[in-house]
Amino acid sequence: MNILITGGAGYIGSHTALTLIKAGHKVTILDHLQKHKEDILETLRSEAGDFELLKLELQNQQELQHALENRTFDAVIHFAASIEVGISTEKPVAFVNNNVVGSQFLFDALIANGNKNFIFSSSAAVYGTPESVPIKETDKISLENPYAMTKYVTEEILRSYANFADVNVVALRYFNPAGSYNGLIGERHNPETHLIPRLLHGLTTDDFVMKVFGNDYDTPDGTAVRDYIHIVDLAEAHATCIDYVMANKGFEVFNIGTGKGTSILEVIQSAEAITGKKINYEVAPRRIGDSASLIADPSKIEKMIGWKAKYDLEDIISSAWEWEQKRPKTDYA
Question: Where are the membrane-spanning stretches (predicted)?
């Protein structure tokens, strides 16, 4: 099949592109290619095979329309977005422009050319602080930061298109992706705000002290609990959803997670066991927008599509540690 992946040089996008290319699909990657992404694409070519590349900014509507004119795809997987929750609270307008307005420009250009099938990279952040866990897709939406708002607004745009413009959509609300494909590609955010890569990078320095943001949450050990999903499992979920979105009309939303929660202190303990290194940490104030516990109920996608996570936390940290030891030092320059 012919698949367009926006943000295909990013962390989740590149793993999904790798999965699809290796499965024999024709892949087109649309990306602005910032933040060390050229070498990620080289890894994709050497490990999986060739693909088409469109170097574009979603917010440049004219260039986007020109590049996508008369282009049709069997499915579009839309990842391209700003993702840092903390930065979204400081720069909400920029997040709306990139995540919502840019997405709207993309959808307009694609739908005008007859593209019908979309898989959208949403987020469990739309649930905010849940009333209970595990979280079901039907649970209350609580938009506690601008990042979450942009994800939910984009979902609703696509829901409207599914209702009135004969478009088919799967929105995937995933929880906490982490890990690496065989240590070849991994998380390369700068600044790095995600727990596992932050922690593992710290182990490569001599004076690292891990900051634990909050130890007074209503959780068993007082630290925040998250549902960590292996990046390879997440990529497979997107691949599995392609057949579903092509065969089913309308809008559907699925949680992507393991259904198992792990606290920050438990992640630290697991990382110590896997790396053989002692992790020094200190408690810092909670970050704005962080929730105490986010754990998925993934039973809907398991029943309707047959996808289920295969990897556990040990697999995630082991693969992430393998990547961290190979990660270019220029990432932190």
Answer: none
